[in-house]
Amino acid sequence: MVVLNPGCELDLGWLNSIHVNTAAVHQRAANLQSRKAVKGPYQAAWLLRAVTCIDLTTLGGDDTDSNVMRLCAKACRAVSEDMLEALGFEAGNIQTAAVCVYPAKVPIAVATLKKMKMENKINVASVATGFPSGQYPLETRLAEIRWAVEKGAHEIDIVVDRSLVINKLWVDLYQEIQKMKEACGSAHLKTILAVGELGSFDNVYKASLVAMMAGSDFIKTSTGKEAVNATIPVGIVMCRAIKDYWTRTGYQVGFKPAGGIRTAADSLAWLIMIKEELGNDWLNNKMFRFGASGLLGDIERQLHHHITGRYASATQFAMG
Ligand SMILES: O=C[C@H](O)COP(=O)(O)O
């Protein structure tokens, strides 16, 4: 991941001028989702692209070192060598972009990837700042970021304090995220908005802008723990904010939908939306990620079907 966004001054005038047309967003989403599905060899190529954009995630209260080690092993061999060979790809060339874990699991993830000699190919992303609620004192939230970075995390997925958005405390939100950016040092800052708890598209758009103005390198939809997580309409709103920020400042910010993205068809719908809304510059893992714990298995099943004409059993590609 390259350094993308140094941020800019908070522009309240810009925020105050925003009004998102909800009906138009839903219309655009329906239009994008009615497009013909990608088929055949193109579909396999798009699915492999999707794999390389995954932050392979485990964020369970029952996470152990062993399942983080398994997650890392799966991230390294994301698609089996047999399948890659059948698809005409060189074995060993398809990995997920990152593994995403709780802060306490950063050391084992870093050590495992190092042992597998994959530390330069797969990043370790850590959630932080009182994930998933963010309802902790700022000092402990900042300390959590510093700890994860010190233990070797390359990317920090912070959560915003939703109350600042709901109460429209944009200056406070901007200042908190700026401090989090500073705490990240050389690690990249991915800001989770928890869109399902923000109340309106206007708030989603404004929170996206504030997060980018404060220096977020990526904006991310959800923790995966809210009742409503990543949806295409909310993705469109965030992508429009990214595009507007890029047009005004010249800085490209990445996008990460997360939460409930489980099927190969979901991944294709998101990639099509990104291509249409942001263009080809965003169709790579420097600018786009899926936050997903269960997506990889379904993509493998779809690739297996593409190669053999048969669907694998639900347990054949269980991990991912
Ligand atoms: O950031 C990633 C999300 O927590 C993953 O959510 P998921 O388990 O619904 O795929």
Automatic annotation (TrEMBL):
Q: Which pathway, per its entry?
A: Carbohydrate degradation; 2-deoxy-D-ribose 1-phosphate degradation; D-glyceraldehyde 3-phosphate and acetaldehyde from 2-deoxy-alpha-D-ribose 1-phosphate: step 2/2
Name the Enzyme Commission number(s) assigned to this protein: 4.1.2.4
Q: Name one GO biological process term.
A: carbohydrate catabolic process
Q: Organism's domain of life? A: Eukaryota
Question: Which residues are catalytic?
Answer: K220 (schiff-base intermediate with acetaldehyde), K256 (proton donor/acceptor)
What main location does UniProt list?
Answer: cytoplasm
Q: Which UniProt keywords apply?
A: Cytoplasm, Lyase, Nucleus, Schiff base
A GO molecular function held by the record: deoxyribose-phosphate aldolase activity
From the Swiss-Prot or TrEMBL record, state where the protein is found.
Answer: Cytoplasmic granule; Nucleus
- Catalysed reactions, as listed in the record: 2-deoxy-D-ribose 5-phosphate = D-glyceraldehyde 3-phosphate + acetaldehyde
- Subunit-level organization: Interacts with YBX1.
Per the entry, what this protein does is:
Catalyzes a reversible aldol reaction between acetaldehyde and D-glyceraldehyde 3-phosphate to generate 2-deoxy-D-ribose 5-phosphate. Participates in stress granule (SG) assembly. May allow ATP production from extracellular deoxyinosine in conditions of energy deprivation.
Concerning PANTHER family, the annotation shows: DEOXYRIBOSE-PHOSPHATE ALDOLASE
What is the name listed in the Swiss-Prot or TrEMBL entry for this protein? Deoxyribose-phosphate aldolase
**Species whose genome carries this gene:** Thrips palmi (Melon thrips)
Q: Which gene encodes it?
A: LOC117643508
